[in-house]
Every structure is written in structure tokens, then in C-alpha cells.
Amino acid sequence: MKVLITGANGQLGRGLIATAPATVDIHPVTRDDCDLADSSTIAALVAQVSPDLVINAAAYTAVDKAESDEDTARAINAEAVAALVAAHEGKLVHVSTDFVFDGMASRAYRPDDSRNPISAYGRSKAEGEDHLRDSDLLVRTAWVYTAGGTNFVRTMLRLMAEKPALNVVADQIGAPTWAPGLGRTIWGLVAKEASGTFHHSDAGVASWYDFAVAIQEEALALGMLGKAIPITPIPTSAYPTPAARPAFSLLDCSKTRALLEDGHTHWRCNLRAMLTEELSNG
User: In total, how many domains does the chain have?
Assistant: First the structure.
């Protein structure tokens, strides 16, 4: 099976490539290979590769910048999806986000729950979802990180080594997602010929504060930090940002797990695996 993967240099793109089945012929596409804001370039690329499957792992993810640059966010997160659908007759696998929800729920969001994005980024991702066909596969995820990427875990490691103390938001609730685990889930759904909407994040629940505390504890255990520093939980109101974040964006992944009949690894176990890889990479 010939698979075109956009966003191949991103966290998820690398996770997909690392976990791809041996039978897959991968055609990785980076931003240098294709301008996703140009529909004619997308059409030419798809025609040239003639893939059996397209996995769109590319996205505009600068959440705060999108508030003042919504046109660019929409071009990459929505219009590019429409262009991929128009250019490719076969299945498109598209990856979206918990930011399509408003965070007002009192339980984990199910795939068929109503969306109500509260940021420009969330609106652009919701619009991208609307371009998909019934035969396509939509996978929503959240809080993605991986070794070597630009993400919360690596930012925390740097700040913990540089700062005497940290304040971290404690009233935004969700679950982290290790990119290789997300990659395995996507390949599993592809193997099951799944279509429609599915959710994937690691098992468990956390605030950003919980995540930061765990990062420090696991990094100390691995010898990646020289000493512990105080980490103080703060409300979102104490750390204002241009874009609003959903206060509660936990994803209900039961539909995904039931179809794949696999285990659901807790986020702390995957954090330990990521940090171990980060350590081995130097």
C-alpha cells in the first residue's frame, strides 16, 4: 500500500513513519516539498505520487498566533483538507484536535459530541473536519509530544534546568498523547478499514500542572535533572494568552479501543518511554 504522509517532519509525522507496518510504502511530504496553502500544488503532488491512502498529519498549530493570523491557519487546517479531498479519490486520514470543543463538558468528549471551538485555531480545525467525506477517517487527539520535538515536555525540561521555580496552569484538564502511540493507533484503524470519527489520547487524566510534576519526577529518576524545583499550580487567569483554551478537553477513546481491541497505555508510562528515548538521543 502506497501512503502519502503530509507533515512528515512533525511530531506525528515522525511517529507515523517510525510505527508504519513493513508492508507500507511511505511517501513522506514536508513543508519544503509542498505548500499546503496552495491547492494546485497539492493536486500536483497527489497526481504525481498516486497514493492508495493519504494521511494528513500536517497542521498550523501555533494556537496563539492563529488569533492574529486566522487566514493562514484556515488555509492549512481547512482549505488544504478540501484540496486533498478533491485531489484524492481514495481514503483520507485526517488528524484533528480537542480544541474543536469548548471545554464546558463534565465528562470526556465522545466522537459524536457537538463542537463549539473557542479559538481561531479550533475554528480552523473544525472547518477542516467539515470537508471530510463519510468514507474518510478523522482522528482527534490532544497534547501531543515526542522525543526531539517542540513540545511541553521538552520546554519543561529546559525551564526546570534554568529556573529556580515554575508556575504551571492547573485548571485545564485533558490527557497527554505520545506521538508514536498515536501513530500505532492510526495504523491500526487503517488496518481495520475504519471510517468516521475516532479519538486517541493516552489513558488517564491530567492538568498541565500534573503533567509538569510528573515530568520532573520522571526526569529526576532518570538523572536528566540535577535537582527538584518548586512547581506551583496556578489558574488560567494568572497566565493570560491570546487564544482561549478549553478548560476540560478529555477525549473519550472507548470507541477506538473497542475497535482495535488493544490496551490503553497510561500517559505516565508513555512519558517515561519518551524521556528514556530523549536521554538516549543525548
Answer: 1
